[in-house]
């Protein structure tokens, strides 16, 4: 067994080295070699799945993650990665379920929170999306794209004042983001928010033609 683990570690290191060097075909071959070793090692299958998902092969990645989850149903990484693979395939409800399951295991996991917030938004579950982004904001802060989605979700739940405050704060802190902020608040999925676009544009220091 020790010899197998040593060989696995060596092949995995070679795969990572090839991946970092931009040798994708060689990296995939080595990750697959590691995953095919006997007895199967969940970490090797997980590594292969992560590589395949990042390489734009979500269906193949899911096959690897499913094997990991069959052996270890509570494998947090495999649940989260499976969720993102499902998102890329537009399997939104399945993605929501996977991220929710991951958060039952680790309620503060930032990747699971981000995935749930994103997938819930795509599913039209605005309340869950807002909650996810607010939890994530408290933990790690939000990037620009996540902030824009958060604003849209706030508007969809009727929290117009909170959304406007966030728009104003972001517009003042990041002037280059002003155009995207306008799009976030004016191009929404349904009605229920009355916005004076010209006034908002003036507040953000941009012009509206």
From TrEMBL:
The keyword Cell wall biogenesis/degradation does not apply. Pfam families: TPR_16 (PF13432), TPR_19 (PF14559), TPR_4 (PF07721). Coiled coil: none annotated. The keyword Lipoprotein does not apply. SUPFAM superfamilies: TPR-like. PROSITE patterns: TPR (PS50005). This is Tetratricopeptide repeat protein.
